[in-house]
Amino acid sequence: MNLKQLSQLLGLSQTTVSRALNGYPEVNEATRERVLQAVKETGYRPNKAAQRLATGKAGSIGLVMPTAPGHQSDVHFGEFLAGLGEEAVRHDFHFVIMPADPDDEVAALRRLAISGNVDALFVAYMRGHDPRLAMLKSLSMPYVVHGRSFGSEPDYPYLDIDNEGAFYDATRLLLQLGHTRFALMNGPMHLDFAIRRKNGVISALAERGLTLEEGCMSHALMTDEQGLLAMEHFLQLPERPTAILCSSTVLALGAIRAVNQAGLRLGEDISLIAHDDVLPLLKPESFSVPLTTTRSSLRAAGVRIAQRLIGTVKQAGPFPDQELWKTELIVRASTGPAPRP
Amino acid sequence: MNLKQLSQLLGLSQTTVSRALNGYPEVNEATRERVLQAVKETGYRPNKAAQRLATGKAGSIGLVMPTAPGHQSDVHFGEFLAGLGEEAVRHDFHFVIMPADPDDEVAALRRLAISGNVDALFVAYMRGHDPRLAMLKSLSMPYVVHGRSFGSEPDYPYLDIDNEGAFYDATRLLLQLGHTRFALMNGPMHLDFAIRRKNGVISALAERGLTLEEGCMSHALMTDEQGLLAMEHFLQLPERPTAILCSSTVLALGAIRAVNQAGLRLGEDISLIAHDDVLPLLKPESFSVPLTTTRSSLRAAGVRIAQRLIGTVKQAGPFPDQELWKTELIVRASTGPAPRP
DNA sequence: TACATAATTGAAAGCGCTTTGGATGTCGCT
DNA sequence: AGCGACATCCAAAGCGCTTTCAATTATGTA
């Protein structure tokens, strides 16, 4: 069933039917009713590809999903997607997901944009000096970046959380508890959030004249295994750190396993603060020792970004170009006073 | 840059350029080279919407993502998507993801199909007597179902794992270890895999004249919290079960927390076998007591389904219509002989 | 040399929709 | 009766691509 057939069925022109469906005012209410009724009966749905071709809009937002045979799927990605989806479903938008090798992201993004299949782009996993920004700017297609790109002029639309502030505050808390030996368990070094979190830690330490030793920093994929390995390494250090900052509850999962295996007590021998993206699978309050965290919901960020993206496509009012969300510092049992030497 | 401009630039007709790009034989090799060269220089990419409109194909597979404000994102979904993506990227396919309220899945699937935006459909979260099957059959669009639908004639293309066999085998192992009091921690009752797994347990027990009490069965969302709750319930039973079968390592996570909190020892007081979808986040061998599991990689299933779907769209050879994968039973430390009463 | 055949290329139709630029009919007023 | 202002509706152009059908040129054969 297509427009032509439907309009013939109704004895109307395609023009009128199209207008009736798209809410144009210049169509008699009675005819509009008839059309809507016929649509219900026939189950007619406009062909999106044709709509897109005719209007240039198709109600879809595009994103690149990094993937490769060895590439681990990322819980954070799924959670974010759920947020995007939650908002998209309200506006009858859908996603076009282009899977791409992580090394090929710039090109993949470009293909996606030029394909004429999407109205707007969403970009995540931002890096320092991210090469995708220049490309995006040249594209004349709306986009929103999740995160920022350290070292690039912040003149692009983004939504980010205050990573530096979060880790600064967390570090201060641990300092107040008397800790002096710190370690940072971070995400991959090239990622923007990792850079900023590190800076937050360093600047809080600097205020007390402390520094973060090279050996007390790990940069790795945010999996529980990496957390385990990193923590094992920290625990073997001659000057064992007592305060651990951790970029994800996933990392914390492994880290805590290492702490337990070493016979140490979390919140007493070792204090740990992790960043909590509010993953449904990993609730900090459900850990055997509930985790002190800096919290910001990844899913909420997804919802918000979808709002901005869809709003822009639909030309629904202006949106702030840049948003920086504060995180919450939630104190639970994994932090305690520094142990006496 | 579109075809028309490109062809004018080259002094050729759109026809010839189009043919050159799509590998038709009736075009001079020299001209083809020229065209390809121009494409490289100009960065021309065909408009997918137009291609789709003209050919009816657009290199995309569609799927519905269940989502809603309260709806938890599902790790399993993300992992599966990674598998689909891994294969799709090899064929320059992409996904069209339509987010939809879980209650609205049939309609959403229908919309997606008629939208003319996708070449094939993928369907998951199968239920008993799933209403989507009839709809899919009426659609004349290729599709593959992940899982099966208990109670429906199995005359549709699917890829499933042998859930019944897996849980039958797991139960037998526990029986051989001397266990007599069983409990099953299952996924939502309406889902097909839950039905089959339950049947597997029941039939293995029946061979020994045992039954599964109503109170020894839980059907819930597969989150760690639900696992915790279910296990707490089991542990309070007057005839406490000693053998637990668990539909997911996520559930097991919570269940084990409950076991620990009750001061019981896993693998001694309580034996537990979980089904392992090979989630990168939750490795059974990394649990403090490594988990005995029935294993089948969700991601591998994603890859295979993408293969079949894309292969069918590309008319690349016939594929088996129905595949049933065996699971592996991997014995680790969470199972042991039944404790003496 | 003349003619069939193969190798290349193009013009134009069409995919299903939106939208511009009329056309037609109605109504209220002078 | 005559005229502008609305309210409705429609024909046809176009979005960017593929593909059928036909035209043109090059090649080989008798």
Description:
The structure is a homodimer of 341-residue chains. With 341 residues, chain A is of the alpha/beta class. Helix content of chain A is 41%, strand content 16%. Chain A has helices at 3-10, 14-21, 29-42, 48-55, 75-88, 105-114, 132-137, 163-176, 192-207, 224-236, 249-261, 298-313; strands spanning 60-66, 94-100, 120-123, 143-146, 158-161, 182-186, 217-219, 243-246, 271-276, 292-295, 322-325, 328-330. The longest helix of chain A is centred in the middle third of the chain and has 16 residues, at 192-207. The model of chain A has no long low-confidence stretch (mean pLDDT 93). At the A-B interface, helix 4, helix 5, strand 2, helix 6 and helix 10 of A face helix 4, helix 5, strand 2, helix 6 and helix 10 of B. Strand 2 (94-100) of chain A pairs antiparallel with strand 2 (94-100) of chain B. Chain A binds a DNA duplex (30 and 30 nucleotides) through helix 2 and helix 4.
**Parts with pLDDT < 50 across at least 5 consecutive residues of chain A:** none
Please give the radius of gyration of chain A in angstroms: 25 Å
CATH class of the largest domain in chain A equals: Alpha Beta
Look up the CATH topology of the largest domain in chain A.
Answer: Rossmann fold
What would the average pLDDT of chain A be, to the nearest integer? Answer: 93
Share of residues in strands of chain A: 15-25%
